[in-house]
Design goal:
Blueprint (H helix, E strand, L loop, with lengths): L3 E6 L2 H9 L8 E4 L6 E4 L1 H5 L8 H4 L9 E4 L2 H18 L3 E5 L2 E5 L6 H16 L3 E6 L2 H13 L6 E3 L3 H8 L12 H9 L5 H6 L2 H19 L17 E11 L2 H21 L6 E8 L9 E7 L6 H15 L6 E9 L17 H17 L7 H4 L8 H6 L1 H5 L1 H8 L1
Parallel strand pairs: 2-4, 7-8
Antiparallel strand pairs: 1-6, 1-7, 2-3, 5-6, 9-12, 10-11, 10-12
The structure holds a DNA duplex (18 and 18 nucleotides).
Length: 419
Amino acid sequence: MTVFALVDGNSFYCSCERAFDPTLRNKPLVVLSNNDGCVIARTQEAKDRGVKMAEPWHIASKRPGAKDIIWMSSNYALYGDMSRRLYDVLAAHAPAVEPYSIDEMFLDLTGIPDPVALAHRVRAAARRIAKIPTCVGIGPTKTIAKLANKAAKSYRTDAGICDLSTEAARAATYAAMEIGDVWGLGPAAVAKLARLGVATVADFMRLPNDEVRELLTVTGARTHRELSGVSCIPFSQAPTTRKSLAVTRSFGRAVTRWPEMEQALAAYATRAAEKLRRHGLVAGGVQVFMRTNPFSKDPRYVSQATFGIETTADTLVLIKDVVRAGEHIWRDGYRYAKAGVVLLDLVHPAERPRDLFPSTDRESRARLMTALDTVNLRYGRRTLSPAAAGIGHASWSMRRQKLSPQYTTCIDEILSARA
DNA sequence: TCTGGGGTCCTAGGACCC
DNA sequence: TCTGGGGTCCTAGGACCC
Protein backbone atom coordinates (compact mmCIF):
# COMPACT_ATOMS: atom_id res chain seq x y z
CA MET A 1 0.00 0.00 0.00
CA THR A 2 1.42 3.34 -1.05
CA VAL A 3 1.53 6.38 1.23
CA PHE A 4 2.03 9.81 -0.24
CA ALA A 5 2.24 13.22 1.36
CA LEU A 6 1.81 16.59 -0.27
CA VAL A 7 3.72 19.44 1.33
CA ASP A 8 2.55 22.86 0.25
CA GLY A 9 4.02 26.22 1.16
CA ASN A 10 1.31 28.48 2.56
CA SER A 11 0.84 31.65 0.49
CA PHE A 12 4.21 30.72 -0.92
CA TYR A 13 5.30 33.91 -2.68
CA CYS A 14 4.14 36.00 0.27
CA SER A 15 5.95 33.72 2.70
CA CYS A 16 9.13 34.13 0.67
CA GLU A 17 8.84 37.91 0.89
CA ARG A 18 8.19 37.66 4.63
CA ALA A 19 11.22 35.44 5.09
CA PHE A 20 13.37 38.32 3.91
CA ASP A 21 11.39 41.14 5.45
CA PRO A 22 10.02 40.21 8.87
CA THR A 23 8.19 43.54 9.16
CA LEU A 24 5.69 42.03 6.70
CA ARG A 25 4.60 39.41 9.25
CA ASN A 26 0.98 39.51 10.39
CA LYS A 27 0.19 42.09 7.73
CA PRO A 28 -2.11 41.74 4.73
CA LEU A 29 0.17 41.21 1.74
CA VAL A 30 -0.35 40.32 -1.93
CA VAL A 31 2.13 39.53 -4.69
CA LEU A 32 1.17 40.58 -8.22
CA SER A 33 1.82 39.09 -11.66
CA ASN A 34 3.95 40.69 -14.37
CA ASN A 35 2.90 44.27 -15.11
CA ASP A 36 1.27 44.14 -11.67
CA GLY A 37 -1.93 42.93 -13.34
CA CYS A 38 -3.33 40.14 -11.20
CA VAL A 39 -3.06 38.88 -7.64
CA ILE A 40 -1.09 35.62 -7.64
CA ALA A 41 -0.45 35.18 -3.91
CA ARG A 42 -2.25 36.39 -0.79
CA THR A 43 -1.58 36.05 2.89
CA GLN A 44 -4.40 34.95 5.18
CA GLU A 45 -4.85 38.57 6.24
CA ALA A 46 -5.37 39.58 2.60
CA LYS A 47 -7.79 36.68 2.04
CA ASP A 48 -9.75 37.86 5.08
CA ARG A 49 -10.13 41.22 3.32
CA GLY A 50 -11.83 39.52 0.37
CA VAL A 51 -9.00 39.49 -2.16
CA LYS A 52 -9.52 36.61 -4.61
CA MET A 53 -6.88 34.55 -6.38
CA ALA A 54 -6.05 35.81 -9.91
CA GLU A 55 -8.20 38.86 -9.36
CA PRO A 56 -7.13 42.00 -11.24
CA TRP A 57 -5.44 44.21 -8.68
CA HIS A 58 -7.04 47.36 -10.04
CA ILE A 59 -10.37 45.91 -8.92
CA ALA A 60 -9.33 44.28 -5.64
CA SER A 61 -7.39 47.31 -4.41
CA LYS A 62 -10.42 49.56 -4.77
CA ARG A 63 -12.63 47.55 -2.47
CA PRO A 64 -13.38 49.08 0.92
CA GLY A 65 -11.24 47.39 3.53
CA ALA A 66 -8.42 46.78 1.07
CA LYS A 67 -6.66 50.06 1.79
CA ASP A 68 -4.07 48.67 4.20
CA ILE A 69 -3.04 45.78 1.95
CA ILE A 70 0.64 45.83 1.03
CA TRP A 71 1.39 44.77 -2.54
CA MET A 72 4.62 43.67 -4.16
CA SER A 73 5.72 42.83 -7.70
CA SER A 74 6.76 39.21 -8.13
CA ASN A 75 10.40 38.16 -7.80
CA TYR A 76 10.70 34.73 -9.38
CA ALA A 77 14.42 34.43 -8.80
CA LEU A 78 13.78 34.65 -5.05
CA TYR A 79 10.88 32.18 -5.16
CA GLY A 80 12.89 29.66 -7.15
CA ASP A 81 15.68 29.88 -4.63
CA MET A 82 13.30 29.42 -1.71
CA SER A 83 11.75 26.45 -3.48
CA ARG A 84 15.16 24.76 -3.68
CA ARG A 85 15.65 25.39 0.03
CA LEU A 86 12.31 23.78 0.79
CA TYR A 87 13.28 20.82 -1.38
CA ASP A 88 16.54 20.37 0.53
CA VAL A 89 14.71 20.35 3.85
CA LEU A 90 12.22 17.75 2.63
CA ALA A 91 14.92 15.59 1.06
CA ALA A 92 16.70 15.51 4.41
CA HIS A 93 13.62 14.06 6.11
CA ALA A 94 11.80 11.90 3.56
CA PRO A 95 13.03 8.93 1.51
CA ALA A 96 11.85 10.41 -1.80
CA VAL A 97 10.70 13.85 -2.94
CA GLU A 98 8.97 14.77 -6.19
CA PRO A 99 8.69 18.51 -6.82
CA TYR A 100 5.30 19.19 -8.35
CA SER A 101 5.30 22.96 -8.62
CA ILE A 102 7.34 25.80 -7.21
CA ASP A 103 5.50 25.53 -3.88
CA GLU A 104 4.31 21.92 -3.75
CA MET A 105 6.21 18.67 -3.34
CA PHE A 106 5.06 15.10 -3.04
CA LEU A 107 6.77 12.76 -0.61
CA ASP A 108 6.72 8.99 -0.94
CA LEU A 109 6.26 7.74 2.62
CA THR A 110 5.46 4.15 1.73
CA GLY A 111 6.76 1.89 4.46
CA ILE A 112 7.35 4.70 6.97
CA PRO A 113 6.04 3.55 10.38
CA ASP A 114 4.49 6.87 11.44
CA PRO A 115 3.88 9.25 8.54
CA VAL A 116 2.08 11.80 10.71
CA ALA A 117 5.03 12.11 13.08
CA LEU A 118 7.31 12.58 10.11
CA ALA A 119 4.97 15.25 8.76
CA HIS A 120 5.27 17.12 12.05
CA ARG A 121 9.05 17.02 11.86
CA VAL A 122 9.00 18.19 8.22
CA ARG A 123 6.75 21.12 9.02
CA ALA A 124 8.90 22.22 11.91
CA ALA A 125 12.09 21.98 9.87
CA ALA A 126 10.59 23.83 6.89
CA ARG A 127 9.58 26.67 9.16
CA ARG A 128 12.84 26.75 11.07
CA ILE A 129 15.33 26.24 8.24
CA ALA A 130 13.59 27.43 5.07
CA LYS A 131 11.38 29.96 6.92
CA ILE A 132 8.34 28.67 5.06
CA PRO A 133 5.08 27.72 6.82
CA THR A 134 3.56 24.62 5.24
CA CYS A 135 0.57 22.30 5.32
CA VAL A 136 0.81 18.54 4.81
CA GLY A 137 -1.79 16.17 3.42
CA ILE A 138 -1.35 12.40 3.66
CA GLY A 139 -3.09 9.64 1.71
CA PRO A 140 -2.67 6.44 -0.30
CA THR A 141 -2.82 8.28 -3.64
CA LYS A 142 -1.63 11.64 -4.89
CA THR A 143 -5.20 12.87 -5.38
CA ILE A 144 -6.10 11.97 -1.80
CA ALA A 145 -2.91 13.60 -0.50
CA LYS A 146 -3.84 16.76 -2.40
CA LEU A 147 -7.34 16.70 -0.95
CA ALA A 148 -5.95 16.08 2.54
CA ASN A 149 -3.68 19.07 2.06
CA LYS A 150 -6.69 21.16 1.14
CA ALA A 151 -8.47 19.95 4.25
CA ALA A 152 -5.43 20.74 6.38
CA LYS A 153 -5.57 24.29 5.06
CA SER A 154 -9.30 24.71 5.56
CA TYR A 155 -9.44 23.61 9.18
CA ARG A 156 -6.82 25.89 10.57
CA THR A 157 -7.08 24.42 14.06
CA ASP A 158 -5.75 21.12 12.79
CA ALA A 159 -2.00 21.81 13.18
CA GLY A 160 -1.63 21.99 9.39
CA ILE A 161 -1.66 18.22 8.91
CA CYS A 162 -4.46 16.04 7.64
CA ASP A 163 -4.15 12.28 7.33
CA LEU A 164 -6.63 10.52 5.04
CA SER A 165 -4.88 7.16 5.04
CA THR A 166 -7.82 5.26 6.45
CA GLU A 167 -11.24 4.61 4.95
CA ALA A 168 -12.83 6.01 8.09
CA ALA A 169 -10.95 9.30 7.86
CA ARG A 170 -11.89 9.61 4.19
CA ALA A 171 -15.58 8.87 4.81
CA ALA A 172 -15.77 11.66 7.36
CA THR A 173 -13.89 14.17 5.21
CA TYR A 174 -15.43 13.37 1.82
CA ALA A 175 -18.91 14.24 3.04
CA ALA A 176 -17.72 17.70 4.06
CA MET A 177 -15.66 18.55 0.98
CA GLU A 178 -16.96 20.16 -2.17
CA ILE A 179 -16.31 18.39 -5.43
CA GLY A 180 -14.54 21.46 -6.77
CA ASP A 181 -11.83 20.98 -4.11
CA VAL A 182 -10.64 17.85 -5.89
CA TRP A 183 -7.41 18.05 -7.89
CA GLY A 184 -8.37 17.45 -11.53
CA LEU A 185 -12.01 18.52 -11.37
CA GLY A 186 -12.40 22.07 -12.66
CA PRO A 187 -15.38 24.32 -13.32
CA ALA A 188 -16.57 22.33 -16.34
CA ALA A 189 -16.61 19.05 -14.41
CA VAL A 190 -18.26 20.68 -11.41
CA ALA A 191 -21.04 22.03 -13.65
CA LYS A 192 -21.65 18.63 -15.23
CA LEU A 193 -21.70 16.89 -11.86
CA ALA A 194 -24.01 19.51 -10.39
CA ARG A 195 -26.61 18.50 -12.97
CA LEU A 196 -26.53 15.02 -11.47
CA GLY A 197 -26.93 16.44 -7.98
CA VAL A 198 -23.32 15.71 -7.09
CA ALA A 199 -22.00 18.38 -4.74
CA THR A 200 -19.62 16.70 -2.30
CA VAL A 201 -16.79 14.27 -2.77
CA ALA A 202 -18.94 11.67 -1.01
CA ASP A 203 -21.65 12.16 -3.66
CA PHE A 204 -19.04 11.74 -6.37
CA MET A 205 -17.82 8.48 -4.90
CA ARG A 206 -21.34 7.06 -5.04
CA LEU A 207 -21.25 7.23 -8.86
CA PRO A 208 -20.02 4.09 -10.63
CA ASN A 209 -16.63 4.54 -12.31
CA ASP A 210 -18.09 3.76 -15.74
CA GLU A 211 -20.59 6.56 -15.40
CA VAL A 212 -17.83 8.98 -14.44
CA ARG A 213 -15.85 7.92 -17.47
CA GLU A 214 -18.83 8.52 -19.70
CA LEU A 215 -19.35 12.00 -18.23
CA LEU A 216 -15.78 13.22 -17.65
CA THR A 217 -13.71 10.96 -19.94
CA VAL A 218 -10.64 9.05 -18.85
CA THR A 219 -9.14 11.81 -16.72
CA GLY A 220 -12.27 12.09 -14.61
CA ALA A 221 -12.41 8.33 -14.23
CA ARG A 222 -8.82 8.28 -13.11
CA THR A 223 -9.50 10.93 -10.49
CA HIS A 224 -12.46 8.85 -9.31
CA ARG A 225 -10.29 5.78 -8.91
CA GLU A 226 -7.58 7.72 -7.13
CA LEU A 227 -10.15 9.04 -4.66
CA SER A 228 -11.24 5.46 -3.99
CA GLY A 229 -7.68 4.68 -2.90
CA VAL A 230 -6.33 3.06 -6.07
CA SER A 231 -3.10 4.80 -7.02
CA CYS A 232 -3.12 5.64 -10.75
CA ILE A 233 -0.74 8.60 -10.85
CA PRO A 234 2.74 7.27 -10.29
CA PHE A 235 5.34 8.86 -8.08
CA SER A 236 8.51 9.77 -9.91
CA GLN A 237 11.59 11.49 -8.59
CA ALA A 238 13.18 11.78 -12.00
CA PRO A 239 12.42 15.18 -13.47
CA THR A 240 10.74 14.75 -16.85
CA THR A 241 11.96 16.71 -19.81
CA ARG A 242 9.56 19.47 -20.66
CA LYS A 243 7.68 19.11 -23.92
CA SER A 244 7.10 22.71 -24.82
CA LEU A 245 8.31 26.12 -23.87
CA ALA A 246 6.53 29.42 -24.32
CA VAL A 247 7.18 33.12 -24.27
CA THR A 248 3.92 35.03 -24.29
CA ARG A 249 2.97 38.51 -23.15
CA SER A 250 -0.07 40.67 -22.89
CA PHE A 251 0.71 44.06 -24.36
CA GLY A 252 0.53 47.05 -22.06
CA ARG A 253 -1.24 48.91 -24.84
CA ALA A 254 -3.11 47.44 -27.82
CA VAL A 255 -0.91 46.76 -30.83
CA THR A 256 -2.44 47.92 -34.10
CA ARG A 257 0.50 48.10 -36.48
CA TRP A 258 2.49 45.24 -37.95
CA PRO A 259 5.97 46.68 -37.25
CA GLU A 260 5.19 46.72 -33.51
CA MET A 261 3.98 43.14 -33.65
CA GLU A 262 7.00 42.13 -35.67
CA GLN A 263 9.29 43.58 -33.02
CA ALA A 264 7.43 41.81 -30.25
CA LEU A 265 7.53 38.45 -32.03
CA ALA A 266 11.22 38.81 -32.77
CA ALA A 267 11.89 39.54 -29.10
CA TYR A 268 9.80 36.52 -27.98
CA ALA A 269 11.59 34.28 -30.45
CA THR A 270 14.92 35.43 -29.10
CA ARG A 271 13.90 34.78 -25.49
CA ALA A 272 12.48 31.39 -26.43
CA ALA A 273 15.75 30.43 -28.12
CA GLU A 274 17.67 31.50 -25.01
CA LYS A 275 15.45 29.35 -22.78
CA LEU A 276 15.84 26.45 -25.17
CA ARG A 277 19.62 26.60 -25.03
CA ARG A 278 19.63 27.04 -21.26
CA HIS A 279 17.80 23.72 -21.00
CA GLY A 280 20.08 22.08 -23.55
CA LEU A 281 17.16 21.12 -25.76
CA VAL A 282 16.23 21.35 -29.41
CA ALA A 283 12.75 22.00 -30.80
CA GLY A 284 10.96 20.23 -33.61
CA GLY A 285 8.23 22.80 -34.12
CA VAL A 286 7.12 26.35 -33.46
CA GLN A 287 3.76 27.93 -32.83
CA VAL A 288 3.13 31.65 -33.25
CA PHE A 289 -0.11 33.20 -32.07
CA MET A 290 -1.76 36.58 -31.66
CA ARG A 291 -5.12 37.60 -30.30
CA THR A 292 -7.34 40.53 -29.50
CA ASN A 293 -8.56 41.19 -25.97
CA PRO A 294 -11.31 38.65 -25.18
CA PHE A 295 -12.66 40.94 -22.42
CA SER A 296 -13.20 43.82 -24.80
CA LYS A 297 -16.15 44.59 -27.06
CA ASP A 298 -13.82 45.22 -30.00
CA PRO A 299 -13.96 42.83 -32.97
CA ARG A 300 -12.29 39.57 -32.04
CA TYR A 301 -9.55 37.81 -33.85
CA VAL A 302 -7.51 34.82 -32.72
CA SER A 303 -5.04 33.12 -34.96
CA GLN A 304 -2.07 30.86 -34.71
CA ALA A 305 0.33 29.15 -37.05
CA THR A 306 2.27 25.98 -36.31
CA PHE A 307 5.18 24.77 -38.37
CA GLY A 308 8.09 22.38 -38.11
CA ILE A 309 11.66 23.59 -37.91
CA GLU A 310 15.02 22.03 -38.42
CA THR A 311 16.22 21.18 -34.94
CA THR A 312 19.52 22.77 -35.83
CA ALA A 313 17.92 26.13 -36.57
CA ASP A 314 19.85 28.99 -34.99
CA THR A 315 18.26 32.00 -33.40
CA LEU A 316 18.37 34.19 -36.49
CA VAL A 317 16.68 31.54 -38.58
CA LEU A 318 14.09 31.06 -35.86
CA ILE A 319 13.34 34.78 -35.74
CA LYS A 320 12.95 34.90 -39.50
CA ASP A 321 10.56 31.93 -39.49
CA VAL A 322 8.55 33.30 -36.57
CA VAL A 323 8.18 36.70 -38.19
CA ARG A 324 7.17 35.15 -41.50
CA ALA A 325 4.53 33.04 -39.76
CA GLY A 326 3.36 36.10 -37.82
CA GLU A 327 3.03 38.07 -41.03
CA HIS A 328 0.96 35.25 -42.45
CA ILE A 329 -1.62 35.35 -39.67
CA TRP A 330 -1.57 39.12 -39.14
CA ARG A 331 -4.75 40.95 -40.13
CA ASP A 332 -4.96 44.72 -40.27
CA GLY A 333 -7.68 46.55 -38.37
CA TYR A 334 -7.63 44.68 -35.08
CA ARG A 335 -6.45 45.79 -31.65
CA TYR A 336 -4.08 43.02 -30.59
CA ALA A 337 -3.76 42.41 -26.86
CA LYS A 338 -1.49 39.40 -26.65
CA ALA A 339 0.96 37.38 -28.71
CA GLY A 340 3.42 34.60 -28.14
CA VAL A 341 5.90 32.08 -29.42
CA VAL A 342 5.76 28.44 -28.32
CA LEU A 343 8.48 25.91 -29.07
CA LEU A 344 7.14 22.37 -29.44
CA ASP A 345 8.38 18.79 -29.45
CA LEU A 346 11.45 19.51 -27.34
CA VAL A 347 14.07 16.78 -27.05
CA HIS A 348 17.62 16.34 -25.91
CA PRO A 349 19.78 16.30 -29.03
CA ALA A 350 21.23 12.90 -28.17
CA GLU A 351 17.93 11.34 -27.25
CA ARG A 352 16.44 8.70 -29.49
CA PRO A 353 12.80 7.91 -28.87
CA ARG A 354 12.18 4.27 -27.99
CA ASP A 355 10.44 2.45 -30.75
CA LEU A 356 7.41 0.82 -29.23
CA PHE A 357 5.84 -0.15 -32.48
CA PRO A 358 8.40 -1.94 -34.56
CA SER A 359 6.97 -3.19 -37.79
CA THR A 360 6.36 -6.81 -37.03
CA ASP A 361 4.18 -9.57 -38.27
CA ARG A 362 0.45 -9.47 -37.78
CA GLU A 363 0.39 -11.85 -34.87
CA SER A 364 2.92 -10.10 -32.64
CA ARG A 365 1.23 -6.82 -33.40
CA ALA A 366 -2.06 -8.24 -32.18
CA ARG A 367 -0.36 -9.42 -28.98
CA LEU A 368 1.01 -5.93 -28.47
CA MET A 369 -2.45 -4.45 -28.86
CA THR A 370 -3.87 -6.82 -26.27
CA ALA A 371 -1.08 -5.94 -23.85
CA LEU A 372 -1.76 -2.26 -24.36
CA ASP A 373 -5.47 -2.76 -23.74
CA THR A 374 -4.72 -4.40 -20.42
CA VAL A 375 -2.39 -1.68 -19.26
CA ASN A 376 -4.59 1.13 -20.50
CA LEU A 377 -7.60 -0.25 -18.70
CA ARG A 378 -5.66 -0.54 -15.46
CA TYR A 379 -4.66 3.10 -15.68
CA GLY A 380 -8.18 4.18 -16.45
CA ARG A 381 -7.60 5.08 -20.05
CA ARG A 382 -9.70 4.37 -23.06
CA THR A 383 -8.64 1.11 -24.52
CA LEU A 384 -6.29 1.15 -27.46
CA SER A 385 -8.15 -0.84 -30.02
CA PRO A 386 -11.48 0.75 -30.89
CA ALA A 387 -12.68 -2.50 -32.37
CA ALA A 388 -11.90 -4.37 -29.17
CA ALA A 389 -13.77 -1.81 -27.12
CA GLY A 390 -16.73 -1.74 -29.48
CA ILE A 391 -16.21 1.93 -30.20
CA GLY A 392 -17.19 3.28 -33.56
CA HIS A 393 -14.00 4.62 -34.99
CA ALA A 394 -10.34 5.17 -34.36
CA SER A 395 -9.59 8.50 -32.76
CA TRP A 396 -6.61 7.26 -30.84
CA SER A 397 -3.41 9.03 -31.65
CA MET A 398 -0.43 6.77 -31.27
CA ARG A 399 1.97 9.67 -31.44
CA ARG A 400 0.47 11.52 -28.51
CA GLN A 401 0.40 8.40 -26.39
CA LYS A 402 4.01 7.68 -27.16
CA LEU A 403 4.97 11.07 -25.76
CA SER A 404 2.80 10.82 -22.68
CA PRO A 405 4.71 10.27 -19.43
CA GLN A 406 2.08 7.93 -18.09
CA TYR A 407 2.48 5.83 -21.15
CA THR A 408 6.21 5.80 -20.75
CA THR A 409 5.93 4.51 -17.21
CA CYS A 410 4.19 1.45 -18.60
CA ILE A 411 6.71 0.73 -21.31
CA ASP A 412 8.43 -2.11 -19.55
CA GLU A 413 5.14 -3.61 -18.52
CA ILE A 414 3.94 -3.48 -22.10
CA LEU A 415 7.11 -4.89 -23.54
CA SER A 416 7.14 -7.79 -21.10
CA ALA A 417 3.51 -8.54 -21.86
CA ARG A 418 4.37 -8.54 -25.54
CA ALA A 419 7.17 -11.01 -25.13
C1' DT B 1 -8.44 52.48 -18.85
C1' DC B 2 -6.24 48.54 -16.40
C1' DT B 3 -7.75 41.29 -16.75
C1' DG B 4 -0.56 36.68 -15.97
C1' DG B 5 2.51 33.46 -17.84
C1' DG B 6 3.50 29.47 -17.97
C1' DG B 7 2.52 24.18 -18.59
C1' DT B 8 0.10 19.03 -19.59
C1' DC B 9 -3.23 15.85 -21.38
C1' DC B 10 -7.35 14.38 -23.96
C1' DT B 11 -10.69 14.40 -27.82
C1' DA B 12 -12.26 15.13 -32.40
C1' DG B 13 -11.88 15.19 -37.11
C1' DG B 14 -9.66 15.72 -41.76
C1' DA B 15 -6.17 14.07 -45.11
C1' DC B 16 -3.89 10.39 -46.40
C1' DC B 17 -2.13 5.46 -46.76
C1' DC B 18 -2.60 0.33 -47.79
C1' DT C 1 -26.09 -0.77 -55.60
C1' DC C 2 -22.54 -1.77 -52.52
C1' DT C 3 -18.95 2.63 -50.12
C1' DG C 4 -14.01 -1.45 -45.34
C1' DG C 5 -10.98 -1.50 -41.68
C1' DG C 6 -6.92 -0.42 -39.62
C1' DG C 7 -3.63 2.73 -39.33
C1' DT C 8 -0.50 7.58 -39.22
C1' DC C 9 -0.01 12.40 -38.90
C1' DC C 10 -1.65 16.82 -38.22
C1' DT C 11 -4.49 20.72 -36.49
C1' DA C 12 -7.75 22.70 -33.44
C1' DG C 13 -9.77 23.24 -29.25
C1' DG C 14 -11.24 22.09 -24.47
C1' DA C 15 -10.06 21.31 -19.78
C1' DC C 16 -7.20 21.43 -16.10
C1' DC C 17 -3.09 22.66 -13.24
C1' DC C 18 0.10 26.19 -10.63
